Amino acid sequence: MLLHLSPSNRNGAIGFGCSLGFLLFVSKFNEFVQAYKAKKNIKKSQAIAHGIFPTLAAIFRKTCGYRELYTVSMLSLSLLLRTFGSVWVANHWGKIVKAMVTRNFGLFKKLMAEFGGATIGLAVLNALLKYYISKLREQVREKVTKWCHNHYMRQGDMVFYKANKVGDDKIEHCDHQITSDVDKFAETFAAVLSQSLKPIVDFVVYSVELSRVQGLATPLSLYAWFAIASCISTVTLPPYGELAAQEQRLEGRFKGAHAELITNCEQIAFLGGEEPEKRVLDTQLARVIAHLSHSTGLNYNSEILRQYLNKYFVTVIGLYLVARPVRKGLSGMGEYTGEAIAQYFTSTWKNMEAMATSIQDLFELTNRVGRLGGLAARVRALMQGLEHLPPVLTKEIEAAKKGPHPPAFRSGPDLEFDNVSVYRPDGTLLVKGLNLAVRRGTRVLITGGNGCGKSSLFRVIRKLWPLVSGTITMPADKDVYFLTQVNFVPVGSLRDLVIYPLSRDAMLRAGRTDSEVYECLRWAVCSPEPLRADGRADLEFTADGRLVRPELDDVREWQKDLSPGQKQKIAFARLFFHRPAFAVLDECTNGISPDVERAIYDRCTEMNLGIFSISHKIELKEFHDLELHYKGDLDGGWELLKCADTRGFYVGAASSAIKPAAAAGGKPAGGKAAEPAAAAGGKAAE
């Protein structure tokens, strides 16, 4: 079939086939360079285990769809049309030069008018290119981030907690990876795709054009030179993938140091810790700057050789190839006039320059693809971590499954613990063989030294930590409510603070009303209504120089407006609104006055709530029936006592009750130590 074509068209067709073969060589070359650099430079713990294409496929299969495919298609079409437009400009520019050299100014004006009109379309194409590149970045970031959010906040799995708090294989700076790494990945992917498609399209089109005009010698010579030059420059090429991944890791740690400073700013201010905290920030910044300087130095060494080989020396080769047909009189050029040679040189040189640039860009994809590969590897690792968190305490759980008390959860109206052992995620035993049954209305005070794991049992109940051994019988999750010592304040209106995590629509669908919300606020002694004898409200504060008593629909910066005590009261209003069967109160009355504390515990009793209070305050024994004391020893010892027997006393580690010092003079108050109600093995009080 090729034999029936004219020589120029036949050369164009052959040039098209050669261009596809060269593209295959470039892709294999880039893969080889990445693998070579990874094997030579990347630390084993930081190695990018998968190639760039499998990694991208794994990300996009889970996240992107037809919308993103449409954007990529439109981006590709825009690039193709712009390249054809550039070829037209090169040929038209040659005609303009010929008209000017021959002093044919009538033709010159006509050609300039055509050029001015046609380039309006090129301007539109250029704007479309930037538009679709930006849209692709936005869409990829949106889809990948939403996928991460869906798994990060997966209902019932508490991934957002486990990924940041549980085990040795936590996701490092998970917040930074979701917010910053995904954005960097989307930006780099859109840029690499556009910068990859453009040189590919340009390369194929200009290869065909040069083969048609000059024969196959010109494009094949350029192919050969760029292949040799790229092989030479590979020796100095930095490991871009590893450098990009390490840069994001260091940026995450730097951002994490600032986040820690904000979290602990008040304590640091009280302690005057500006100097050591500044050292921490400067140290993290120094590591980032050192890495960037190292990357810049590596890139500088590579850039010297690459610029000379691929930009300047190739000009010599290009001029020789352009002059070759004229010098040898190929394709009838021996009879060309000066004007024809000027037209030929202008149009051909522009095409060759564009082709050389496209080949150079193809080989420079090694740098861009390397950086994209590093970011893609981090995003894929993040997605894998969010999708399948590594298990903890596997050895302990497997051992318990072979014993008499394998781990099991059962449903029941009460909370019962049958030979339950609790471990930290690092394997430390906290409680061994706990046997305890708590009915609705029973109030249990949990005591023990600092760090003995008083909250650990409830992390197991909430399934934040795995159950290692024993059986826990409990009602539905919604019937066990947790109030922590951290004053959590949701975003939204005052109503949202009380009904969280419900929305107003969900509250109304459940048949609940605003009257109930106000009632719960009154029960928690934090109503914005002026109910006091002095005309004041329990929930009021000063903002911008005026007194504020918020309405249920008011949306404010509650974290700033509310005092710690008000935040704790609203948490109790939330507890009363949800009406659980059991409530776990973890050091959550420290900011509340004793009279309000008594009123709140009385309300819990009236609602027949089963209460677990974690506290060091012996005054709370007055409101509780039993005391579960953790010894904090290596054996996971515990004991269960009647609060009536230990009221007014601290229970020591050796099962002895210690009466607090007398108010006057600080001398021991005397009195016989209370008898322990159970031994360390866990026998309940009679």
Brief digest:
With 686 residues, this protein is an alpha/beta fold. It contains 20 helices and 14 strands.
Keywords:
six-stranded mixed beta sheet, 686 residues, alpha/beta, single chain, 20 helices
Write a structural description.
59% of the residues lie in helices and 10% in strands. It contains 20 helices and 14 strands. β2 (415-423) and β3 form a beta hairpin. α1 (7-41) packs parallel to α11 (338-387), α6 (174-214) packs antiparallel against α8 (240-263) and α16 (514-523) crosses α18. The N and C termini lie far apart (102 Å).
Q: Quaternary state, please?
A: single chain
Round the Cα radius of gyration to an integer and report it.
37 Å
Structural class call reads: alpha/beta
Strand content: 5-15%
Judging from the principal axes of the Cα atoms, what is the shape? elongated
| Helix-residue proportion | 55-70%
By DSSP (H or I, 4+ residues per run), the number of helices equals: 20
The main pleated sheet reads as: 6 strands, mixed
Low-confidence stretches: 42-49, 653-657, 660-686
* Average pLDDT for all residues: 80
Task: Let me know the number of strands.
Answer: 14
Distance linking N and C termini? 102 Å
Strand order of the largest sheet: 6-9-10-4-11-12
Write the layout of secondary structure elements.
Blueprint: H1 7-41, H2 52-63, H3 66-101, H4 105-152, H5 159-165, H6 174-214, H7 217-233, H8 240-263, H9 265-271, H10 274-328, H11 338-387, H12 394-401, E1 408-411, E2 415-423, E3 429-438, E4 443-448, H13 456-461, E5 469-474, E6 480-483, H14 494-499, H15 504-509, H16 514-523, E7 541-543, E8 546-548, H17 558-561, H18 564-578, E9 582-586, H19 594-606, E10 610-614, E11 626-630, E12 638-642, H20 643-646, E13 650-651, E14 657-658
Parallel strand pairs: 1-5, 4-10, 4-11, 6-9, 9-10
Antiparallel strand pairs: 2-3, 2-5, 7-8, 11-12, 13-14
Helix pairs in contact: 1-6, 1-7, 1-11, 2-4, 2-11, 3-4, 3-6, 3-11, 4-6, 4-11, 6-8, 6-11, 7-10, 7-11, 8-10, 8-11, 10-11, 16-18
